Every structure is written in C-alpha cells, then in structure tokens.
Amino acid sequence: MRKLLISLSVLILLCLNCINPVILFSTAYAQQKPIPPYAKWGALAMKMTKEKYPNARIIDYLHIGRISGPNSSTEKFKLWLKDNSKEFGVFVNIEFNNETEKVIKVTFTETAK
Description:
alpha+beta; DUF3889 domain-containing protein
C-alpha cells in the first residue's frame, strides 16, 4: 500500500510539472473599445486628404476635438503626411449640419510642425 501511494504521488508530481499552472488558471478576454463618435468624420478626413494629396502617404492621425454650434459643428483633425522625403502636417476641419450631418465645408491648412 505504501509503495502504491509513493508511486501515485510521483506520477501526480510528474504530471503537474508537465502542465503550466498559469495556463490552467488564467483567462484572457479581448476587450472591444467603443467606436468614438468622431470616427466617421476621421475616415472622411483621411479620404479627402488622400484625394487632395494623392502622392502623399498618411503616417499619423490626431483628432483634435469638436466645436459645437447651434446649427453646425466642426470636427478638427491633424494628419501627418509624407511625400517622398518631405513630411508635413495638414489640419482638416469638417463642418457639418447638426441635424442632417450633411457636410457644409471642408478646409485644409498645411503646417510644417
């Protein structure tokens, strides 16, 4: 009986060493981030910037913020572009109707910084 218990104990220890205990007790869950309200305007800003600067590559993107008015609002973005060896920034402002979300005006302002 004693030999059986020792053999069983050794077998259990060997099995436990083969299994990583971290894997047994940890569970990873992917978290989905909510889509920000400016996402569609950011996509439009990138699309229109690619149309205006077809030879440049967008290498960075920043949502600056929204200016809300009674009838219209403006989403403000800064995109960083690279055209051959030249890098430059472009401020993109998209003004839209608050009720219909129809675009009223899009402006581009280049900047060296």
